[in-house]
Amino acid sequence: MKNDKSKIRSPNDEPEKLIEVYDLTKSFESVQAVNGISFHVNEGEVFGFLGPNGAGKTTTINMLTGLARPDSGKIRIAGYDCSAHPKAAQHLIGVVPDESNLYPELSGFDNLCFCASLYGIGKKERQKRAENLLEQFGLQEAAHRNFSGYSKGMKRKLTIAAGIIHQPKILFLDEPTTGIDVASARQIRQLIREMYQAGTTIFLTTHYIEEAERLCERIAFIVNGHIVQDETVANLLQPLKELKVLLITMTHDSGNISGKLAEAFPGYDFRSVSQQHLRVESEQTISIGPVVRFIEEQGAEVTEARQIKPSLEEVFVEVTGIETDVMKTEKNGGPS
Amino acid sequence: MNRWIAFWNILLKDMQSYYLKPPNISWGLVFPLAWTAMFFIRSGSGLEEVIEILPGVMAISVLFGTTSMLAVTVTFEKKNRSFERLLLAPISLELLMFSKTSGAILFGLVNAFVPVIPAAFLADLSQVSWATVIPAVLLIAVASTFLGLFIAVSVSEVFEAQTFSNFFRFPMIFLCGLFFPVLSLPVMLQPLSFALPLTYGVDILHGAIHGQHILPLWLDFLIIAGFSLVLFLISLKNIHRKWIL
Ligand SMILES: Nc1ncnc2c1ncn2[C@@H]1O[C@H](COP(=O)(O)OP(=O)(O)OP(=O)(O)O)[C@@H](O)[C@H]1O
Ligand SMILES: [Mg+2]
Fold first, then answer.
1. Confidence of residue B48 (pLDDT cuts 50, 70, 90)
2. Interface residue B84 vs chain A (CB under 8 A)
3. How many angstroms separate the CA of residue B184 from the nearest CA in chain A?
4. In degrees, to the nearest 5, what angle opens at C-alpha A54 toward C-alphas A51 and A58?
5. What's the rounded Cα separation, in Å, for the pair B50 and B36?
6. For residue B146, which of A74, A75, B109, B231 is within the disulfide window of CB 3.0 to 4.6 Å?
7. pLDDT of B69-97, one tens digit each?
């Protein structure tokens, strides 16, 4: 199933649009969950759908996969008109929902076999695939235990396995790494990369900006049912390439000092990001020494000064106007 | 064909997960027997009346067996979201609901014949026309399963499904001629009896088991089949309307 990526992505080839969405809207009673969004996903890419809680991500996935009916708009998946025939493309689609929805009374193995059977896969073949997936996810030990007794991370892994057992052309992943430990999250991200390398088109929703930056080729930011930005990751990061950023941690209130610093160093941009943190930005190289000395002359003690790599997080704050603490960040360190 | 793999496995999973579980099996056994016993004790009738009670006990076993299962196989799975998996599968909604209800229909069919076993020891069943009884029981099972489906789709909680189905079930015991002939009911209630599918199924059973029935049997069959079809179509429409949001 390995595809030659370079062939798909040669610059003269216009990539094929596997998912096309035009002016999609959906409301629930008084809530406008999705408000006229249009976007497309190219064949073989990892498309990130990024937005805060309640932005409309799950609602969009539900409409694309045939679990929800759009109020208006058009959906085309692999050439099928899915707004008129929501079931037309379902044989090509795998869905990993945000909450595990497998059968609690069945074992891991039986759950996988059952899910494969829904796609018309014969008994021998589905048992073989189920065994392989259980091994791939390190769940062999638990294979014949009831799903209800699985831990959260195990449940998530089995839910992903169930979403890919019929080898879908398009995989929808709704926040696959939310609420699980770092090692499992890393394993899942590795799996997403492998699926991508095997040629699967992936539609990924996430809260984690870093995760999107690492995994996705293109990202759409959705806020309050509107898409506020839809760009390749490379293009989003382009303006940040030249930017140097220094993060200074100090004992005193950084807000008082930033004004004085701005006067003393007109070439740099100072911003107090929290009580103790000061952010310094510049297009030129920032000389750390003079800045630190200046701060200490003001009677504050600098406990740390480090250069950070500007990330997509900055872009996100810029385009959405949402401070990133609104979005959850992964506990115990960032994504791998 | 591929989608029959899906159909068969949905049915098989429901059988293993729900129908073949000991509580359901014992329910299927105890319930009809309890009804029969209660009826005998209450009316003090003799063994010769077994054959007159049998159609009602069979019908009631099917009715309670099927309708209560749908609350689990459909309402419960909808509630815990595993039903979404089925809605995502590339099979038509018709086939999906047909496979979700087949288990209940079979369960109802088996339940119906539980009371026949003791009855065979207590009474002479030689004049019973089994060739009519079997399709009649099948149609009763289909109609009451689809009634259960209609109820399961109309509610969102399992307990609501149970309450709502009792709202239909208990009046049906008295209105559908299970134990008291429809024609002996107060005239005002009779139109209500004829508006319920079970009445026609029970009429066939009475005819086939001890020879007394109200309508021509072919008409009974036609009407109960019609009811089944309409209930199934309404349920499908409700699923489309309410579940695919
Ligand atoms: N079935 C429903 N009934 C009523 N409102 C709904 C329903 N589903 C979604 N909504 C509303 O639509 C909006 C978008 O919800 P959605 O679940 O798509 O957000 P999301 O981006 O997936 O959020 P999260 O990151 O929390 O999963 C929310 O305001 C939500 O309350
Ligand atoms: Mg969501």
1. low
2. yes
3. 48
4. 80
5. 9
6. B231
7. 887 788 888 888 899 999 999 999 999 99
Contacts of B99 in chain A (CB under 8 A): none
Q: Is A58 in the pocket of ligand 1 (CB under 6 A)?
A: yes
**Residues A274-296, mean pLDDT to the nearest whole number:** 86
Q: A102 and chain B: CB distance < 8 Å anywhere?
A: yes
Q: Residue B43 is which amino acid?
A: S
Q: What is the DSSP string of A231-242?
A: EEHHHHHGGGTT
- Tokens matching residue B42: 């209450």
State how beta strands A244-250 and A277-282 pair.
antiparallel
Residue type, B224: I
b/e A139-149 (16+ beta carbons within 10 angstroms → b)? beebbeeebee
Place of tokens 């065994």: A131
- Percent with pLDDT over 90 in chain A: 53
- Give the pLDDT of residue A333: 39
> How many CB atoms are located within 10 Å of the residue A67 CB?
19
Q: Tally the C-alpha atoms within 13 A of residue A97's C-alpha that lie toward its C-beta.
A: 16
Can you give the length of chain A in residues? 336
- Taking the CA atoms of residue B122, residue B126, residue B128 and residue B131 in that order, the dihedral angle to the nearest 10 degrees is 130
Interface test with B, best of A119, A123, A160, A167 (most B CBs within 10 A): A119
The domain total for chain B is: 1
Q: How far apart are CA A127 and CA A107, in angstroms?
A: 13
Between A103 and B184, the higher pLDDT residue: A103
**Ligand 1 close to Cβ of residue A90 (< 6 A):** no
Neighbour order of strands in the sheet with A31-42: A31-42, A17-28, A72-77, A80-81
DSSP A105-137: TSBHHHHHHHHHHTTT--HHHHHHHHHHHHHHT
Average pLDDT score over chain A? 86
Residue A177 dihedral angles phi and psi, to the nearest 5°? -110, 5
- Residue A239: CA atoms inside 13 Å, Cβ hemisphere, count? 10
Reply yes or no on whether the pLDDT at A278 is more than 70: yes
Q: Is residue A61 within a helix (H) or strand (E), and if so which, with residue range?
A: helix A57-65
Between the CA of A187 and the centroid of ligand 2 the distance, in Å, is 21
Contact B10, A119 (CB under 8 A): no
* The predicted structure's pLDDT at residue A319: 67
Mean pLDDT of B56-81: 86
CA distance A99 to chain B (A): 9
Nearest to A101 among B17, B80, B244 (CB): B80
The residue range of the domain holding B83 is 2-244
Asked if residue A9 has pLDDT above 60, the reply is: no
Tell whether the model's pLDDT for residue B207 goes beyond 60: yes
CA pseudo-torsion sign B37, B40, B44, B48: negative
Please determine, for residue A173, whether its predicted confidence score (pLDDT) is greater than 90: yes
* Ligand nearest to the backbone CA of A59: 1
Chain A positions in Cβ-Cβ contact with residue B21 (cut-off 8 Å): none
- d(C-alpha B223, C-alpha B210), whole Å: 21
pLDDT at site B174:
84
Which residues of chain B have a CB within 8 Å of the CB of A67? 84, 87-88, 244-245
Residue B144 tokens, joined: 């009451």
